[in-house]
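A quick word before the example. In earlier lectures we treated sequence and structure as two separate objects. From today on, think of them as two lines of the same record. Here is Riboflavin biosynthesis protein written that way.
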Amino acid sequence: MEIVYLDGQKVNIVEPICSAIGFFDGLHIGHMALVNEVKRVSEQKGYKKALMTFDHYPLYVLGKIKEEKYLTSMNDRISLLEKEGLDYLFIVKFTKEVAALSPEDFINQYLIDLHVKHIVCGFDFRFGKYNAGNTMTLQACQQFNVSVIPEVLYKGEKISSTRIRHVLEQGNIEEMNELLGRKYCVSGEVIKGRRIGHAIGFPTANVDYQSYFLPCHGVYIVKVYVHGQGYMGMCNIGYNPTFTALDKPSLEVNILDFDGDIYHQYMIVEFYCLIRKEKPFASKEELIAQLYEDKQKVREYFKPQDKCPMV
Ligand SMILES: Cc1cc2nc3c(=O)[nH]c(=O)nc-3n(C[C@H](O)[C@H](O)[C@H](O)COP(=O)(O)O)c2cc1C
Ligand SMILES: Nc1ncnc2c1ncn2[C@@H]1O[C@H](COP(=O)(O)OP(=O)(O)O)[C@@H](O)[C@H]1O
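And the structure line, produced from the sequence above:
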């Protein structure tokens, strides 16, 4: 998959393209319906398969929200889309100038100039200054065809990034994983902490989670991947209130059956289930006793189940 940053410069692509367009934070099963339509149309018409996304939230660029928090980092989006076999990922450098483009100017500069012959978008897609462009604006263009994907439902309700954030705030990882159609992950570099982990016999790899929107504070059963090797782990997200509380929550994993130095390595944390809330313990001995119990839960979770006898 070729990654093409669109920053207003001319791009020299001459092949006809079918592209999905949207922000695609989370790449949930609703988003995947758009990706599947891109594949279907491209195979039928012989177009190149593409997806167009943006490097920043429009509301952040316009100063209407102070912090950027994403369900998926750009790296996550790139690697997930790579697996889908797309030919191009267009990343629009979203600036105040791009936000100020009229829907017609956006179409001319970003779609027609790229030889997009078919656009795939969600039923509620809006774009251009004042969000004035919608699916009908796209459908009115002669230069390309448009597939509008209806809302994808889960348990009778529309799947959206907002709903997914709410599910994460509840720590409902099982539902999160169903909405994503894959395991929910956070990844980043392993950074230094306060070295308390080693001192209490439970070293923890602290992840630099940057702009991720995190699940609620608590203890989770996870798997981690370092250099492609997977391990069971227990993850804590929170302020470590048993000690002097941190001023920013940490995301840290005690990796089972592992002993090695992984500072500055890239680690993927794959979430399975919340086991309890983080809490202050009266002593470090009480915390340690709880950590042994948490570890046991992780082992039980991943223990191969006895096969059910055939009935
Ligand atoms: C599975 C797990 C559960 C944890 N639960 C709690 C908790 O309930 N309360 C708490 O104060 N700290 C909890 N911690 C955090 C420890 O206090 C923390 O790992 C320790 O301070 C090490 O931090 P360091 O990486 O900065 O050395 C937990 C850590 C792990 C790995
Ligand atoms: N089983 C393990 N789980 C997590 N990290 C481990 C483990 N064994 C060794 N380490 C290493 O130890 C570091 C964590 O030790 P810790 O004392 O908690 O230090 P810090 O406070 O800097 O995170 C990790 O970043 C990793 O490099």
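Notice the following. The longest helix spans residues 284-302. We will return to this example when we discuss secondary structure assignment.
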